[in-house]
Design goal:
single chain; about 325 residues; four-stranded parallel beta sheet; globular; binds phosphoric acid mono(formamide)ester; binds norvaline
Length: about 325
Amino acid sequence: MRLKWNPSLRGRSLLTLLDVTDDEMLDLINLAVALKARRQAGIRGNLLLRRQFALIFEKSSTRTRCAAAVAAREEGGASEYLARSDIHLGLKESVADTARVLGRMFDGILFRGFSQQVVEGLARYSGVPVWNGLTDSYHPTQVLADLMTMQENFGRLRGLTLAFVGDGRNNVANTLMIGCAKAGVNFVNVTPPELMPSAELVEQTRAIAARNGASITIGHDPVADVRGANALYTDVWVSMGEEEQKASRMALLSPYQVNARLVEATGNRDNGLIFLHCLPAFHDDQTTITSETGALEVSDEVFEAPYSKVFDQAENRMHTIKALMVSALADPEKA
Ligand code: CP
Ligand code: NVA
């Protein structure tokens, strides 16, 4: 099984999906599809042999951390997990100095944290590819997996409609707007007026969507706005680092829960509709760390339904991060 990747991605970072062209983004998704098929055929390659990856996490992670570690290891590479409390970054050492040190030892860096400026600084000063594993602003490796999951289910992306229902200005919503625009997926952002994405990003993504025959729409009426959606997507109401806003978010977002009524409102329940969530999710009484009420952003019924593809989406985090590492660092002669 011969793999192909886009040579223009060699040595490149991904700090936001705005960093890649529309075609480069689609090439990453197609490479992830091929890597997944290759893994399912039992093939473990050596595309990242002796490559060393630093995984810096200022915030918690299950999927992103494991996806990066497994992706590297499966192709012969190795990774080092660096939690906020383990290293000096931003405390005793500047971003620029830490970046220059890590760049002397590692071949690539994945960063999860608060500020987009920090991940930009790591990319500027390390001299090696840096991938954004989530900041307050963006979550680009997530959205590669989301689009891959849509492509797996529909066999295409262009012309589909994805409705995101929830906190319309968080990292995931922002990045979905960009990714959908680039892929020609119509994006409907259903959110309270208080949680709208920035006017600048809306304008920017509308221009990208227009050239791909798609639209970016903002609405505030879940039942009316999800009509015609092929994919329903939600995320937590309170993102990491925003915990003090929990009470106001609950009040704003409780009418925006994705539940059976909303699934019905798409008109596509029996016509291939899928439900997506980046996870972790508050969908039942097991996940009540911040909730007294059980399900929050999605009902258990929807989360557990056959049309819920959330665990495929989670698995696809690994294939898409592997595609990024391979595109940036692997030798095409060894494909
Ligand atoms: N979706 C996602 O990024 O999950 P983690 O927070 O577990 O990495
Ligand atoms: N918006 C969420 C995504 C978690 C993967 C957060 O930032 O916490």
